[in-house]
Design goal:
Elements: E1 5-12, E2 28-29, H1 33-37, E3 44-51, E4 56-58, E5 64-66, H2 67-81, E6 88-93, E7 99-105, E8 111-117, H3 123-127, H4 149-152, E9 158-164, E10 168-175, H5 182-198, E11 229-230, H6 233-246, E12 252-258, H7 260-273, H8 283-299, E13 306-314, E14 331-339, H9 340-345, H10 347-354, E15 368-373, E16 392-395, E17 404-409, E18 417-423, H11 425-432, H12 435-438, E19 441-442
Parallel strand pairs: 8-9, 13-15, 15-17
Antiparallel strand pairs: 1-8, 2-7, 3-10, 3-16, 4-5, 6-7, 7-11, 9-10, 12-18, 12-19, 13-14, 17-18
Length: 443
């Protein structure tokens, strides 16, 4: 498939016409334990595939603005609301020689904005194959960058890339996971698309429905602020991860969707199997159980094989005093341990019960790992930038390990869900050939 070529790079700074009251403009933001933990992983990389854009977007009064300039300007306006993401991570000695502290300096240095072209690549090249073509990873900026490298180096905490395809455009962002989680990521993305969609006469200071982010960080009671980090720890993290990445086996990924009716059928089956237990299984739990069992079959695990399922859970609404528009990283890991035989032999309902938070078991590390993140409640397909709703959603190459799955809204009517699943090539081949798993999917 065609190569992706960079046309231009620029640093976009927050639009100065979008002004916060001075009392709500922090100069420095100190990371929480949740933030610091996420510095060890790749940037969040998500994007949407949009239909073909016009060569120029009419803004009224005879003015025509190229689409990439429109996206750059509306991105700057969105940054005016999320101006802290135009800052940089900094490492400071704690003054006693015992460690370092990390901070996000709201220095207004900007977020990177990349314009690229992918000659010969079409929308169908991305959406038609069950297995996601590797060219998609080239639609994302800051590939292979760890969160900690933004503190030890000088790279931005946020970057966007607009890639022109032959008959469409891919709009993507990469965001440091040590600064924000997927909820804040999509909050910014929704804000950006709404500003672009609502802009009139080339002006981007428009009224939008997306709420303003909340900058104040949430710390557990008694937690030191700022939190000291042992000397050399960040360099150790980067070194260890780089060595681990060099040893990673190759993986492939697929994207499958489940209609609302299929999801209802899975929920009904799971609850019927657990009838009389006093447990009610949700649609997400049923879907994750369906995936868990299918991945075990695809991996051909022995019945006695110890396994672990890790699910990333958003903590907004669960942690006291944390608002819905909280702009930091607020994700907790919960894990369920089992043998492969127990999950495969005891049915969908039993597997779904293992996925019931917060009563999840924690045990020794299991070699057969599956982990999921994101949420089907996040508004992905509402990201219309002004010329049509997204055709698809895809993610970049960050943290693509065997056993990783991402959950999205399905984009095909209410209640639908989608899964992006990453496995070793031979296991993925068996997964997409698994009739029990695939029979619930839609084209």
């Amino acid at each position: 498939m065609g190569d992706v070529r960079i046309v231009s790079r620029r640093m976009v700074r927050p639009d100065p016409s979008i002004r916060w009251p001075p009392e709500h403009q922090p100069e420095t933001i100190h990371p929480t334990p949740w933030d610091l933990r996420m510095l060890a992983v790749d940037y969040i990389q998500k994007g949407v595939l949009l239909p073909k854009t016009p060569a120029a977007t009419t803004q009224g009064q005879g003015r025509n603005i190229p689409v990439v300039d429109r996206l750059s300007s509306s991105f700057a306006s969105a940054l005016g609301r999320f101006y802290h993401l135009a800052g940089r991570l900094a490492v400071n000695d704690d003054g006693a020689g015992a460690g370092q502290t990390i901070s996000l300096r709201c220095s207004n240095e900007g977020a990177e904005f990349v314009h690229a072209v992918a000659p010969g690549v079409t929308v169908a090249d991305i959406t038609a194959p069950l297995c996601i073509p590797r060219v998609v990873w080239s639609f994302f900026p800051l590939n292979g960058v760890l969160g900690a490298e933004a503190a030890t180096g000088s790279c931005p905490v946020l970057a966007a890339q607009v890639t022109d395809l032959d008959d469409g455009v891919f709009v993507a962002m990469s965001l440091n996971h040590g600064v924000a989680d997927w909820t804040t990521f999509w909050h910014l993305f929704n804000t950006w698309s709404e500003i672009s969609r609502r802009s009139v006469d080339g002006g981007y200071d428009c009224e939008i429905s997306s709420p303003l982010p909340v900058f104040e960080r949430w710390f557990p009671n008694g937690c030191a602020v700022p939190i000291p980090v042992p000397l050399g720890k960040l360099d150790d993290i980067v070194g260890q991860r780089r060595r681990a990445y060099g040893q990673r086996p190759p993986v492939l990924e697929c994207f499958v969707r489940f209609s609302g009716e299929s999801v209802k059928n899975l929920v009904s089956k799971a609850n019927a199997e657990m009838s009389g237990s006093g447990t009610t299984i949700s649609s997400l739990q049923a879907m994750l159980a369906h995936l868990w069992r299918a991945v075990f079959r695809a991996r051909r695990l022995a019945p006695e094989q110890d396994t672990r399922y890790v699910h990333l859970v958003g903590c907004r609404g669960r942690a006291d005093g944390m608002p819905a528009a909280y702009s930091g990283s607020a994700v907790s890991h919960v894990a369920a341990d089992s043998t492969a035989g127990e999950i495969l032999e005891k049915g969908l309902g039993r597997a779904a019960c293992f996925a019931l938070p917060p009563a999840l078991a924690r045990g020794a590390e299991a070699p057969a790992l599956l982990f999921t993140g994101s949420s089907p409640r996040i508004d992905v397909y509402g990201n219309d930038f002004g010329w049509g709703a997204p055709v698809a959603v895809r993610s970049g190459g960050g943290s693509k390990l065997a056993g990783k799955a991402t959950v999205y809204e399905g984009g095909c009517a209410a209640g639908s869900m989608a899964l992006e699943v990453c496995l070793a090539p031979e296991a993925l081949d068996r997964l997409v050939a698994d009739q029990e798993f695939m029979s619930a999917t839609v084209p």
